[in-house]
Amino acid sequence: MGESIHATKLAILNASERLVAAHGFGATSLRAITSAANVNLAAVNYHFATKDALIVAMLNRRMKPLNDARLDLLDKFEKDAGDAPVAVEKILEALFRPILELIARPAKGGRNFLRLLALCLAEPGAFLKPLVQKEFAEKNRRFHRALRRSLPELSDVEVHWRLHFAHGAFFHAVAHSRVLELSSGGRCRLTNCGSVLERVINFCAAGLRSPA
Amino acid sequence: MGESIHATKLAILNASERLVAAHGFGATSLRAITSAANVNLAAVNYHFATKDALIVAMLNRRMKPLNDARLDLLDKFEKDAGDAPVAVEKILEALFRPILELIARPAKGGRNFLRLLALCLAEPGAFLKPLVQKEFAEKNRRFHRALRRSLPELSDVEVHWRLHFAHGAFFHAVAHSRVLELSSGGRCRLTNCGSVLERVINFCAAGLRSPA
DNA sequence: CCTTGATTCAAACGAACGTTTGAATTATTA
DNA sequence: TAATAATTCAAACGTTCGTTTGAATCAAGG
């Protein structure tokens, strides 16, 4: 071992991930975090210097692996396709599946990380936006390029719009699945991630391919 | 007049709407609000009793008119259609257009209200969720029923899922249009709301109508 | 065993927060 | 104009926050 993160640091990251996802950024105090992590209050400032730095570290821990997984999957599909453009469904799968696999693995953040992402988009905190934008910049470029190849009849800006729509359909569906659960009277849930992936890919692929 | 809201109350509502949309719930202090509204600090507690009550009032001011406009539009389209089911595009228009018209009218909240809605969904504040859910319950029922009539080949739960996807595609697109602006290098903007409405309706209608 | 550095701990700091108070001021009514 | 209610105001209250501090504890090497 030796390479692994300090136990205290890890406990703080896990506790803050859970609590911030449950109560939001501002409403989660360092005292609540350190208490849940069974560490001393000053441990946060010792290991992360400041609360903002802790939040950034908490996000970075999950962000990079997620986007790497998406890009790796897209790479794989592009290699499988050879010279032909990748099917729209495959591009969407590369974009969506890593998030659903994250949800299924509570040890890797699970649903909590999705709530953090939603908070990042909604909360206009100055230090969060750049982090998200920089982290997602390459991902957006790669997926936009792949879609343009697969949908050559669409203009550049049209692909931008539709990719945005597709991302919104999926992200909203999984991040705010509670809303669907309630409005459907509990008949629609996020338990069976495989069927959700099939459904949302089917929906978005039709939208992407729709004639202008 | 006399019927209209107190000037101080209105100044507080306007200032809090702007500041909360810009900085989030927790990060917006009553001192910042009252200072921006040019009223005394204690005016908030005098007119709204508490900060939480102010936020609820701030949301209620925009929420009801928005959903009423959507339901009115759906009513109109249903009357126009007579006994036939309403076209999917019309149902989506009834769902989306009132929000875009809100955006175009800064005096009625404009883009700020959208950010508040996104915050409501993301921030797990206990007092916000019920407000949104209760307010949107009837709207969801009405639009689900209309869609089922127009898409009789889809099952009940399938319509729930696809309506959720459609709402996500639109809401994410308009609430987080900044993300699209950046990832498209400024080529995609939310200025021309008409073209956005056309685009998102086209996308979602294709998704809704897609064979299972 | 002693020393050195890393980590933990209890305690406190100053700042900012939502809220309350009671007097001053303004508006309303008779 | 006098009396009454509504509103504004400056000041303060108690709490909670993120952060700092300096001593205590632990780990490891010479």
Overview features:
homodimer, 212 residues, mainly alpha, 10 helices, 74% helix, DNA-binding
Describe the fold and architecture:
Chain A is an all-alpha fold and 212 residues long. Chain A is built from 10 helices and no strands. Chain A has helices spanning 7-23, 30-37, 43-48, 51-81, 88-103, 110-122, 129-150, 156-175, 177-183, 193-209. In chain A, α7 packs across α8 (156-175). Chain A is globular. Chain A starts with 6 loop residues before the first helix and ends with a helix. The mean pLDDT of chain A is 92. At the A-B interface, α1, α6, α7, α8 and α9 of A face α1, α6, α7, α8 and α9 of B. Chain A binds a DNA duplex (30 and 30 nucleotides) through α3.
Largest sheet of chain A: none
User: What is the residue-mean pLDDT of chain A, rounded to a whole number?
Assistant: 92
Tell how many strands the DSSP assignment of chain A holds. Answer: 0
Helix and strand content put the structural class of chain A at mainly alpha
The sequence of SSEs of chain A as H and E is: HHHHHHHHHH
pLDDT under 50 segments of chain A (min length 5)?
A: none
CA(first)-CA(last) distance of chain A:
56 Å
The general outline of chain A is globular
If you compute it from the alpha carbons, what radius of gyration of chain A comes out, rounded to the nearest whole angstrom?
A: 19 Å
Quickly count the helices of chain A.
10
Biggest chain pair contact, residues each? A-B, 59 and 59 residues
Q: How would you describe the oligomerization state of the chains in this entry?
A: homodimer
Strand content of chain A: under 5%
Helical amount of chain A: over 70%
